[in-house]
Structure formats: C-alpha cells, structure tokens
Amino acid sequence: MRKNIFICFSFVLFTFQYVTAQIISGKVWYDVNMEDFYEGGIKDGKATPELKRMFRMTADAAKNIQLELIFNKGQSIFQHQKGLSISDIDMLDDFVKSLASKGTYYTDLIEGIQLLQTSYDGKEYSVKSKIYKLDWTLTKEQKQIGRFLCYKAVLDKSIAGKNHKIIAWYAPKIPFSFGPVDYVGNLPGLILELIIPGTTYTASKIEIDPKKEVTIDWPKDIKTMTEEEYKKEGDKVKAQLDRGW
Amino acid sequence: MKKVIFLMCTVFAIGFSSSSLNAATIEAAVDCEDVAFDFADDVYAQTGDGFAAGRAFTVALALCELGIK
C-alpha cells in the first residue's frame, strides 16, 4: 500500500515538474476591446453627437490594436506590435495606442521592478517602479482561453477617486506572474485576459517555447524617474486642462 | 401665370433660406473646445491619468476642428 502511495506521489510530482519545467519562455499576443470605454463615455445620456463620435472612433480604432508580451522565467516586455497602423488618422492612432498601453513595459520579477518607457508632447519618460503586492481575491471560477484553463481573480482599485473592479483570468499552467501593462508580480500564473475600466485585453495567440530562452533587452544607461514624479507630471497636465488649457 | 411663378419662387426662396439658416445654426452650435474638454474629462474619469486626458483633449480638438466624421 505504502509502495503504491509512493509511486503515485512520485508520478504526480514528476508530471508537475515536467509540465512547469517545459516552459522556458513564450510570447502572447493580446487583442484589445474598448467597447466599455465607449459605453462609459455615453452612459449618462448627456453626450453630444460629437462626443459620441470621439468615443466611437476610439473604440473602433482599438479593435485593430495588437499588443505583445514576451517573457522568460524572470523578465518580460509588453509593447505594441511595431509598425502597426490602427486607423487612417495618425494622431488618433497615437492616442488610442497610448490608452491601451502608455508605452513599453519591462518587468523584472527577480528584482521586483518595472520600467515604463513612454512619451508625452515630445518628451521621453522612463519610469521605474517597485512591484507591490496587491490584494487580489482568487476565485474558483474558471474558463478556457486557448488551450489553457484560467482562473478568475478580482481586485478592488480606486481610479480617479472611484472604486473599480479589476478582473484577471490567469493560467496556472504558465507559472509566471506576467500580464498586460502593470498587472505583474501578483498572480500564480500568466494573465491571459485582463479587464480594467474601459479596456479588455484578451490573449489571441499563445506561443510557449520549451527549449529556447529569449533574452529581454533591458534598457541601459537611462535616466529614470519614480512613479510619484511621473504622476506629478501627469497631474500638471490635468491642472492645465482644469484651468482651461 | 406670372403670379403663380412669383409665388412659387417666393416659397422656394423662403424654404431654401430657412434650410440654410438651420444648417448654419447647427454648424455654429458645435463648440470644439467644449467637445474636447468633455472628452478629456471622461478619459480622465476612466483612466485617472493626466497625460491621457491631455492627449484626449488635443486629439478631440483637432478632429473636431477638421470636421472629421
């Protein structure tokens, strides 16, 4: 009997190790849906036809966005697919892309840091931030995304003074805490779907490489700023808007 | 006959000027700055990001002034 239990236990352990050891690196492509952004903009019924048009154009252009997450065991890069045009109007392109992802996000889980490279009005910003533990609620709710079984996790987050529910569907079979934008370092699996106010990111293609480890080219010799400093710069832009531009 | 033609012309002229006046009134009612500020406020409410609001204002103002539909 003991022998049987030992054999069963060894088999389970070996299978688990085999499955997790299989993944050395991978790439995930995400589609973006911003219909919630449109709905959120017009929900109070006061939106003028011109304002509705702005929201409609934004949500339509977002349908063509494709973002990519490339990862190895410790690091990842999340960015827009290079050279992709999402509308006929360049300025709309840039705006909608920046809504879906402010720029390129580099993540280092070993060091517990993230670097965002972004720009505004011709000025470049490199924002370095720590990865904080967030109070996610892990649920038993599950669904299939591609060939991966995903579990739902929920996070309460305050955005612009209002509480919002953030929903992530993560795949424990890809045991790396990466995901879209700055949702990294917290969940016991890679996020294949993320729902934040206005935007949903859904994995449309998942490639797992069992043999070759990709190298993430972490930017070197750059001047970085803290998240707080970056937020202050953004607040200045908002204050300028509040003063009537 | 002349009277009928005169009346028809008058009715047509009044109708035409009234419709162009309406069109002009609708055009004049669009204040692109208002649209841009409203759009920027909504974007800020959904993102909490001042930069996103700034970009939203700029793009909405430009697209509205260009009359892109």
- Global mean pLDDT of chain B: 76
What ranges of chain B have pLDDT less than 50 throughout 5 or more consecutive residues?
A: 23-28
Name the beta content range of chain B.
under 5%
Mean pLDDT of chain A: 91
Largest sheet of chain B: none
Short description:
The complex is a heterodimer of chains A (245) and B (69). Chain A has 245 residues and is α+β, with helices and mostly antiparallel strands. Chain A has helices at 2-22, 35-42, 49-62, 90-100, 227-242; strands at residues 25-33, 66-71, 75-80, 103-108, 113-120, 123-130, 137-145, 148-159, 162-171, 190-196, 199-209, 225-226.
What does this structure look like?
The complex is a heterodimer of chains A (245) and B (69). Chain A is α+β, with helices and mostly antiparallel strands. Chain A has helices at residues 2-22, 35-42, 49-62, 90-100, 227-242, and strands at 25-33, 66-71, 75-80, 103-108, 113-120, 123-130, 137-145, 148-159, 162-171, 190-196, 199-209, 225-226. Chain A has a twelve-stranded mixed β-sheet. The longest helix of chain A is centred in the N-terminal third of the chain and has 21 residues, at 2-22. Chain A is globular. Mean pLDDT of chain A is 91; it is low at 11-19. By secondary structure, chain B is mostly helical. Chain B has helices at 2-29, 32-47, 50-66. In chain B, α2 packs antiparallel against α3 (50-66). Mean pLDDT of chain B is 76; it is low at 23-28. The chains are: A alpha+beta (245), B mainly alpha (69). Chain A binds chain B through residues 37, 40-41, 47-48, 50-51, 53-55, 57, 89, 91-92, 94-95, 98-99, 102, 118, 120-121, 159-160, 162, 197-198, 233-241, 245, and chain B through 30, 32-33, 35, 37-60, 62-64, 68-69.
